[in-house]
């Protein structure tokens, strides 16, 4: 580690070495083949999950941590124009399909989500949306034909789930699951490890009720 640091110091202090190093890095990046792209479709959330860094972002104090760091100073929503730029970037538009993952913060809050998903699909990519499910009933129909994988976060049964995410989130997520099930066959919940066996085996039984295929 110390050797790396010292080497960098020497390189950065020498203009010729610095310029050669930059060229080397560009050459390295050119060789990189992206597999997946994580999209932050918006910079705020309608939930206040106790474990998450997103609700703790403070623009006033200029503080953010973990996965929420890119949110500091970011616009509320990603515009369709910016998404189009991302999709046409040479790293994404390399001829090989990518996994376009709408992971953050809560994608269903973005009015242009269906449009961005459609653009991704039209460019041959695979799409995934990860949601807390609160707005899923409302938006299921609009997005269903452009989503390859849908991940709905379910942490536990209602009392604990709502304690973690906020009042009413469990019911809304389950209603969303029912709605998407009417339209399509793909739906999968997430949950925290300690609740996994519990969720599979108890009376909620998402597999039996909704044909849920994967638990992560
Ligand atoms: S729904 Fe997701 S982004 Fe929103 S607070 Fe919960 S974990 Fe964080």
What's the arrangement of secondary structure elements?
Blueprint: H1 2-13, H2 15-31, E1 36-40, H3 80-88, E2 99-104, H4 113-122, E3 126-131, H5 136-144, E4 149-153, H6 158-165, H7 169-183, E5 188-190, H8 193-201, H9 206-210
Parallel strand pairs: 1-2, 2-3, 3-4, 4-5
Helix pairs in contact: 1-2, 3-4, 5-7
Bound molecules: iron/sulfur cluster.
Q: Which percent range describes the beta-strand content?
A: 5-15%
Order of helices and strands: HHEHEHEHEHHEHH
Q: What's the name of the CATH homologous superfamily of the largest domain? A: Aldolase class I
Low-confidence stretches: 191-196
The overall number of domains is: 2
Count of separate DSSP helical elements: 9
What is the CATH topology assignment of the largest domain? TIM Barrel
Q: Give the N-terminus to C-terminus distance in angstroms.
A: 35 Å
Question: Rounded to an integer, what's the Rg over CA atoms?
Answer: 21 Å
Q: Biggest β-sheet, characterized?
A: 5 strands, parallel
How would you describe what is shown here?
There is one protein chain. This protein has about 220 residues and is α/β, with parallel strands linked by helices. It has two domains: about 30 residues; about 180 residues, Aldolase class I (TIM Barrel), CATH 3.20.20. It is about 45% helix and about 10% strand. Helix 1 packs across helix 2. The protein starts with a helix and ends in a 6-residue tail after the last helix. About 30% of the residues are buried. Bound molecules: iron/sulfur cluster.
């Amino acid at each position: 580690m110390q050797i790396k640091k010292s080497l960098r110091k020497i390189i950065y202090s020498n203009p010729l070495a610095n310029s050669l190093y930059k060229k080397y890095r560009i050459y390295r990046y050119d060789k990189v083949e992206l597999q997946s792209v994580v999209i932050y479709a918006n910079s705020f959330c309608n939930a206040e999950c106790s474990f998450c860094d997103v609700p703790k972002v403070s623009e006033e104090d200029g503080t953010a941590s973990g996965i929420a760091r890119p949110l500091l100073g970011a616009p509320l929503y990603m515009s369709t124009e910016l998404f189009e730029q991302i999709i046409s970037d040479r790293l994404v538009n390399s001829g090989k399909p990518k996994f376009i993952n709408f992971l953050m913060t809560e994608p269903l809050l973005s009015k242009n989500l269906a449009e961005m998903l459609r653009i991704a699909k039209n460019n041959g990519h695979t799409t995934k949306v990860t949601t807390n499910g609160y707005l899923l009933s409302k938006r299921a129909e609009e997005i269903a034909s452009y989503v390859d994988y849908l991940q709905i976060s379910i942490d536990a049964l209602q009392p604990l789930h709502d304690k973690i995410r906020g009042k009413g989130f469990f019911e809304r997520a389950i209603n969303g699951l029912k709605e998407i099930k009417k339209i399509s066959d793909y739906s999968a919940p997430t949950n925290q490890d300690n609740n996994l066996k519990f969720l599979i085996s108890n009376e909620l039984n998402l597999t039996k009720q909704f044909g849920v295929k994967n638990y992560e």
